[in-house]
Amino acid sequence: MTAIAKDFPAARLHIVTGKGGTGKTTIAAALAIALACGGRRTLLVEVEGRQGIAQLFDVPPLPYREKRVAVAPGRGEVLALAVDDEAALLDYLDIFYGLRRAGRALRKMGAIDFATAIAPGLRDVLLTGKVKEATTRTSEGKRVYDAVVLDAPPTGRITKFLNVTAEVGGLAKVGPIKSQSDGVMAVLRSSQTAVHLVTLLEEMPVQETIDAIADLSATGLPVGAVFINAARPSLLPAADARRATAGRLGVSRVAAGLELAGLDGKALAKPLTAQAVEDAQRYAIQNESRERIREVKRPTYELPLLAGPIDRSDLFELADILHGAGVR
Fold it and tell me: Taking the model in full, what pTM does it have?
């Protein structure tokens, strides 16, 4: 494992993506806690309207304002924000045109929904713009946040989501939209940003991770680390795992071991042998997936499978593992 601080020393915006079902929101939350350890201040942002962060931290649905959701070891703080596209548009109208009141009227008329419907890229521009603003915000000459972690859309949409700002900016030659899009892309394509990918040790998530890395790199977006989530340990010693995978574990051998332990070898040997073979085969598939991930030559962090639904205590357990691996 390699430390975030070592591999991405200038990164302050950590964008976390992954195939649906890989646990990207969980990893984003654990990463935010790990980055807050030691008295640092991090902001965890979601943009998909799912309120997944609130569920993980067991807090009420997040409003469109930054709210503390956790205290990290060493008096660090984790704040969270659910970015709403309508509220972000109101901010945009207020900042660039002084039209907040007019924006509220437009919202009542349904004009904001209409605008984002006829210009789908506008929504992503507003969302990424808010994230960029939080990343670069200062107060009294200091950064407000040491790090910002974005729970981003899945890998199938991540490149378009991040690059749409550049595409929209290319359509506007001058004016606020051009200025904002240029400012956002300057941050997204700089060393301040790292796009991390979450995967499981399974064929489809690994392939989607590899494809996303290629797409991000081709677009000039900075690829960060790969987070392997929910890795299962082998239940067998290495030699027995090799025998089981090759079909040479032997029911009689297992039965003899059970008898020595004072158990009913005749009744238990066959189902236990079948379970051992299944576990060994699953672990062998995991190792094949690990090899494929190593080939992309990105820093890699591996996190264990945790039993049951993920809750707040699990987030701190995962954050502790990441911090112990050098995440700063």
Answer: 0.89
